[in-house]
Amino acid sequence: MPQSSLESFQPDLLLCRLCDAVPTGLDLDNGYDHYESLAELQKSASGDKYCRLCQMMWESIVQVHQKQRFHLGTHPILSETWPVRLYGLPNPAGEGAWRGYDALELRSGDRAKCEDRTWVTAKTKARTEYPVVSRLYLHKGDWVCPLLYTTVCLDDKSPTGFGIATRWLESCTNHHMHPDIKPGFPDLPTRVIDVDPTSPMIKLAVKGQRLHERAPYTALSYCWGKSKATITTPDNLHRHTHVGMDYQSLPRAIQDAITVTRNLSIRYLWVDALCILQGSVPDAVRDWLTESSKMSQIYGDATLAIIAADSQDCQDEFLLSRQLVVSEARQSRDGIPGRNVLSAYRAGMVPGYVNRKANTWSTRAWTLQEVALSHRALIYTNEQVYWKCGAHGLVSSDGHLSVLPRIDALQEAHLRNDWTRVVIEYSRRFMTNPADKLPALSGLARLHCDANGLAYAAGLCRENIKTELLWRTEHSEKLSPKRPSVWRAPSWSWASIDGPIDYDMSDMHAGTQGGGDGDMQVNQIHLEYLNSHDSYGRVTSGWLSLRGRLRSATSLVLDQYHSAGDVYDGKKMLGRAYADEKRQWPEFEEVEGPLWLLLVTGATGLLLEPHAGAPAQEFKRIGAFFLSRFGRNEVPTWDVMDIKLL
Fold it and tell me: Is residue 328 part of a domain?
């Protein structure tokens, strides 16, 4: 029987020397220098002895370049002198069609000519020198030449879609090393949803009431939004557990989560709205305080987290049918039919990446710990489905490795070792209930402190208290950090502020001389909690007792956004101060004291004011500062005082 054109294909005879030398093991961080110029690539892609892979790359670059010009409104100049660099998108199971790759990413450009480009790189999320970025995608079985393929799933509810998810889970469970996952089935939360496909009603299962102590379960991460959600309260708990809920009456996001859980052959699902009692009555409040303190266990022990990343509301379904951006029927010169799938993306997006700014879920405070605590996650977006696990980061539904912006910065190594990075990201997120500021991060806080043997204090670590006191708020024309109307945390904690913060005070003044270490000593940290058994949850009162060097200041001259300015003692400029929140102070005018500077470490410290109505020596924080050269030189003359910081 004669061989088909595919069976008789010999790749080595159709590749140029550079393509033939493409190594295995490439990824989005370590590329391969291809031709030194686009002109050389074009030459290799044409003529009688053209390279099949170069032909695909050249046509891809040209088409993506044209789409940038005509569809995205940008006008890059395609220079024949630009070098070409390849990055591999390997299949984590090693089943790529060619040398372990499912696709190759091509980048071409020149840093000196492209400083205004904002293509995002996988590792740094910073501007890159390559203004033309494209990927070659082919459906498995549809070949332009049998080098590259992808298995893009266009229907999340199809057998193919659930089959991909099932294979990911099975592969991860059987082959990936997860030292933090306990062997055997996980402990079940207090309540879970029983998704038994044979039952006409959806019931809650309660631990100790016909519910096994240990079994696989999934956990949903989504946005409640503005729609009325189905919730469990003390009044309907009996009905939800014994009679059940009609599937069609549930919000669409929960319906989809049930569908995913069933198709993965998992019996139980955890959803906050249904598995934690909601409401303001005492029984509901007690249950919420207890269950919300278990987030690290609930998401950490879940077999899988289901993340509805592009849902803005609980009524938004996330199991979608979608169309490819561009799908062009092609035929190679050898007569092999196929389909070349190309995509052009706006600045700030690269094919295969989740656009963090495009969805509500990634700006929600609670979701930060939900995804970071989960060992495995299916992430459903409008474009495609992604897989996240500790072994492989994120794998998109077309099989290649990718990175979800911000999440990569919160991998376990950072969670364990750099709490300030977590806090910086968290402070940029929003929440419906301001009182949730500390509870919504309690799971990550517990993980960090347990891993490092630290004690927690209203968002800060007691052992690192000096460094972590030196946060400052970020102000702009659009951002106006402020303290909530209802007390939530001591003034020295970042949790007392609604709005973004940063920990760059030390960086601002790195390398300065003088000022010593501030000699500040924290003598006592006193905190009281709404739930006396949960030191990571809501705080009802608190203060610091400390000894340190203090100096009074006579005025603060504010400038940009009414939030920053120079601190003076008479006509002597002591340093630069950053107010925690904007005040109704006139711009470029002096604000009279009483103001106090508390030196914490080096040349940086806290801006204080006496607490209204409190005894002497009791202050509250209103900002942070770093000292001028004059201010640093006179630190030895500052008074050493014992104070209480509220």
Answer: no
